[in-house]
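Question thread 4412

I'm putting together a teaching handout and wanted feedback from people who do this every day. The idea is simple: show students a protein as raw sequence, then show them the structure tokens that encode its fold, then repeat with a second protein so they can compare. Below is the first pair exactly as I plan to print it.
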Amino acid sequence: MYTNYFGFNEKPFTLTPNPRFIFLSKNHKEAFAHLLYGINNHYGFIALIGEVGAGKTTVLRALLGQLQDANYRSALIFNPCLSGVELLRSINHEFDIDACSEHANELLAELNRFLLAENAEGRTVVLVIDEAQNLQPEVLEQIRLISNLETEDDKLIQIVLSGQPELEFLLERPDLRQLNQRIAVRYKLRPMSMNETHAYVRHRMEVAGETGGVSFSPNAIQMIHLYTRGIPRMINILADRSLLVAYGDERRRIGVGIVFRAIAEICNLPRGRRITLAVAGLTVVVIALLLAAGAMRRPTLRSGGAQPSAAVTAFPARVAP
């Protein structure tokens, strides 16, 4: 609808994952590095935790793209709402080995033969299970049994469990403590920072072919970040709706007002509450700008002056929302 008006070749903020639009923030890169480190060091179990829309699938796609050479064999399970036997059959099917049996022990035996053959060829076998928070405890126990397939000195399969924060609570169940203790590498994916949100919006617009036909003001980007809390999927939803509102108004510069209207439409707010939202949002932006200006004017400590206390210097530079 608005692509021709703004000069895009395609919509820049679609929700469907597209490898051409991939953007790895600092936290995404760290998550990717943790996963690759755990796999290459054969730790056995690795966990990736992140909120809905935080970019877990983006990291997994980057990981699977990295594991395409002859040194790896990888499989992705993205529908974990299965029984133990169904999961085993899905795993065997993904690795192109016999998946016809209805008995877990026969499926495990077939998988073990495959893993031993791959190990003998010097290849690392990687199993990625997305949306792992949906796994039943008995299925997770079945996955733990898969990890028992090993030689005297090495794990035959590396298993990545990726899921929402509920996965953490699931793994803390007393009956899953054996599995929880085996997870040697864990990473919690954090939202993007303000600067990363700006870079993310700019990146997707450039990939979509933007040539100067539309732009977001700095305050608009700040409002998008505050509303979405740096969650990529939410950024896509709000930025797309903002472009649609701007198109309807025949505007090519997206400011805070357009973002406010986009938020109101997404939330389906009545007109009275839209005004309240606009006032509240404008107040937030003004306060944020004043705080930023105050931080820039803060005098620099001289080398001979008082130093910050240990409590201050030890506090993290950025606290995730």
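The second pair follows. I'd like the answer to focus on this one:
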Amino acid sequence: MSTTNHIALPLELRNAMIDHARRELPNECCGVVIGQQGVFERVIPVTSIHPAPDAYFMSPGEQVEIFTELGTSGGSLLGIYHSHPKGPVSPSGMDISLAFHPDAVYFIVSLKNKKQPEVRAFRIEKQVVTEISIRENPA
């Protein structure tokens, strides 16, 4: 498990997550963040196959496509994101119980304040949640 207490997140990736969350309203959005050697490079939106305002279910087919691409490109799954359209910017009980990637950063986008969305990051391992501070990079 990584013990990093902070990460650098390009502003364009943060904004891509927020834009995706807004497009999926009133439902939660979901997606992954990929990169190399711990550097976040790209946000990939994933279809939630059972759209709901309080849950997401990533398309298994799209997940296979992403992992196949990562296998050939040399990239890595560095993060998983989803939104809380009306809720807090912290993991729910369901989020914690379904966190199967202990090395991934779990990003939550809260649209509770639609004018000032909030993005926070967490590590979740063995149902223990640790917040990670985000240092936003301009690019």
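Top answer:
Good format. For the second protein you could add a caption like this: The first strand starts at residue 6 and ends at 10. Strands lie at 6-10, 30-36, 39-46, 76-84, 105-110, 118-125, 128-137.
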